[in-house]
Amino acid sequence: MSNAANKDGEGSEVIARLNSAIEELNPAIEETVKDQAVDDVSTPDNTTNTAPHLVVVAPDAVNAERMGPRLRAAREAKGWTLETAAKETRIHKDYLGAIEDMMPNLLPGMPKSQSYLRGYLSNYAKALSLPEPQDVVQRFLNECGLLALEPTEEELKEKAKKQEFAQKNSWIAPVVISVALTLIACGAGAVYFLKPWENTSASNNNVATAPLENTVYSQSTVLAPASASDLSLHALTRAWVEVRGSDGTVYLSRELAPGDVYIPRVGAGWTITARDGGAFEWRMSGKSLGPIAEAGLPVYSHAVDEALSRQPLENSDLTN
Fold first, then answer.
1. Lowest CB count within 10 Å: 87, 144, 145, 258, which one?
2. HSE (side-chain half, CA atoms, 13 Å) at 115
3. 41-55 tens-digit pLDDT
4. Which residues of the chain are modeled with pLDDT < 70?
């Protein structure tokens, strides 16, 4: 209630000041009216253009107390058109017309920002020689219901606190981003140099430098002898097997399907480990040399060259 009372008091004081200013302008206005009346007598065709400002300043005129019409009256009392006022104030004539018509929504920035409106009003009041331009601004905003849109003191203080906090902590975001980018770069570098995909490939599949014999073939593939002994390992059932070199290099570590064929190197100290020795059969020159071990019996680091000492099984000719 106290704020409303203060605003009403300020509005009454502004009205009193403006009425005083208008009264000072009345002699000039009356003189203009007399001159216009003489002209009207001599030139009756100009009756439609007689003193339009009188509609505003007459005591019984509609909206005579509003600031827009008062600004228009002050402009016309100076003999200015909107174009002249625009040149004098360097404000576009459409904006001045909107101010006089009390239509602030046509001005730039409205309704979110009143900066342009306040500046235009202040400059226009000064150009028209009206006293207390800031009172003109406040009166205009009050009559247009725009004072309610102004932020309260509490809102201004809260906004100032947020701005101060943002300025004090403006360094945090760049530092966090920099640290994150550094961590990402370090992680990418570690992955590149460690190359875990290559380690996986070496342990689960053939080593890149493995010999020509280190290949698994399907049963339908026609094989050429890969060594003088023509020794090959055939999968009878699906089972896992690992083949290593004498230096521990893993040449094969995977599950073979029935019919898959692997040709190891002989005379090089290679070994075979299988979970089920009976799932794999040695063959040489088209004949079976028997399984690595009995069915269901696992074998560990079984020498490949051991198969060379075996004799072909009877009736094991597999060439047909």
1. 145
2. 3
3. 333 444 333 333 333
4. 1-12, 14, 18, 21-64, 147-155, 191-229, 316-320
**CA-based radius of gyration for the chain:** 51
Q: How far is CA 136 from the centre of its chain?
A: 45
Sort strands 216-217 and 261-262 into parallel, antiparallel or unpaired.
antiparallel
Distance CA 226, CA 306 (A): 18
The four Cα atoms 94, 99, 101, 103 give a dihedral, to 10 degrees, of: 90
Within its chain, how far is the Cα of 62 from the centroid? 54
Q: How far apart are CA 226 and CA 150, in angstroms?
A: 92
For 169-230, give the DSSP string: TTTHHHHHHHHHHHHHHHHHHHHHHH-HHHHHHHHHS--TT--TT--EE-TTSPPPP-STT-
Structural contact between residues 77 and 42, judged by C-beta atoms closer than 8 angstroms? no
- Interatomic CA distance for residues 258 and 261, integer angstroms: 9
- What lies within 8 Å, CB to CB, of 56 at 6+ separation is 63, 64, 69, 70, 72, 73, 76
Going by C-alpha positions, the residue among 253, 261, 254 that lies closest to residue 218 is 261
DSSP 71-117: HHHHHHHTT--HHHHHHHHT--HHHHHHHHTT-GGGSTTTTT--HHH
Partners of 36 in the beta sheet? none
pTM of this prediction? 0.33
By the 8 A CB rule, do 108 and 76 touch? no
Return all residues near 256 (Cβ < 8 A) that are at least 6 apart: 216, 235, 238, 239, 240, 241, 262, 280
CB 116, CB 129: distance < 8 Å: no
From CA 205, how far away is CA 61, in angstroms rounded?
A: 100
